[in-house]
Design brief:
This protein has nine helices and 19 strands. It has about 425 residues and is of the alpha+beta class. Acetyl coenzyme *A binds next to strand 4 and helix 3.
Length: about 425
Amino acid sequence: MAIEIRPVSQAETKEYLRVLPYVNGFPQEEPEPSAWYAGSAAWLPQVQKTPAELEQYAEELLTDWFRPQAAFVDGKIAGGSAIVSVQVTVPGGQQVALGGVTSTAVLPTYRRRGLLRQIMSAMLDDCRERGEFLAGLSASEATIYGRYGFSPATFQHRWEVRRTDVAFRSEFTDPGALELVDHAVAAEVWPVLHEQVRAVRVGEISPLPGKWDGLGGLPADGSGPAHHLIHRDATGAVDGAAIFRLPWSPDPEQAGVLQVEAFEALTADAYRALWGLLLDFDLTKRVVAARRPVDEPLRWMLTNPRALKLTRTRDNLWLRVLDVRRALEARTYAATDSLVLEIHGEGRWRLDATPDGADCTASDAQPDLSMSVNELGSLYLGGVRASELSYAGRVAERTPGAVSRLDALLRPDRAPHNAVGF
Ligand SMILES: CC(=O)SCCNC(=O)CCNC(=O)[C@H](O)C(C)(C)COP(=O)(O)OP(=O)(O)OC[C@H]1O[C@@H](n2cnc3c(N)ncnc32)[C@H](O)[C@@H]1OP(=O)(O)O
């Protein structure tokens, strides 16, 4: 078979859309909140489209931020994937370009013949040419993307708590105020709030264009209508917001569940006030929250921290460092130190790191530490410790103490987290 890998042209977008429905079909542990997960509910694999809608979709598919590549087998599209242009916040606060791999699927009749391998290679080359020194994705299966140098860098929790188990350790007097708002107000609040959050949260991703458009009318997808809660500080400025649903169910087990679909707080006051209301909501039995950071402070507010039960923990953003020097120079560090890092296949680098930034230069000195680009991807945002990877045999310490020194450099203030995906 003759295989050609290349970008999809406008004339080919309709044919390319035949592949997209096969992106789905992987087993999900449980349904995710509809609108928050990965963005638009209008994403093709999630809804059946009429022929007219498909025409429109194909017409508008190619944009300057969505770059699909396809594998043409004997002239016909047999698989595809795409890079979306987004930004990720790295330690120190810089928001750097990230090539986001998404919408990956090979038609079932063409799988295991090396098509994804070739598509991925073309897409990562494209990222390098555009100067994107990081690529990222969220993985349908954890066994696929390690071979291309990706590795988990952020993680997320799903938790639930029974209302009868909730008691707060201390009274909280809110200097601000909570307010239920309609969709139109929420649609104005969220983009601004998320920009403020993203400026300070390592790992957070910039929203794709149109991300917030749907907020005005989040679908009532069986989970009931979306409710919008905001918090204002004492000056009236919005410093937190939540979206929740109160799904009705004939099943008593599923009834009385308050689902938190989105939650952001810029201040501790907003955080405490919003959870205070959501966890003590009349006529509910349980609160369920998904896509939450792994260092959720909420448990420390409860008299019984065990009441908050983790029901799922999973990797979220996988990173692939495409240019070691630029990546290491883009972030800041928690200490001042110098280490020589050998990154298999990507050279040997002397990192002179400080809290204000770093210099990274090619080096032929003896390395202090050796690892592959996968380990570097996991370490980069500070969500995984070098000592953990060293114990697992994945980071080799050549100079005694070098693992601890690297941990001290990369130590994060908060666990990296991205509530927004792509
Ligand atoms: C980032 C995202 O978009 S996540 C969504 C990913 N999409 C899906 O899961 C949809 C369903 N799956 C598919 O469409 C395909 O199986 C794909 C896209 C995952 C893989 O496409 P293929 O063309 O079959 O992969 P390809 O033949 O290039 O395989 C490359 C390597 O990955 C391995 N591989 C491929 N799929 C899988 C898998 N599901 N699990 C484990 N290993 C896999 C192959 O064995 C091969 O290994 P090798 O390098 O050791 O030889």
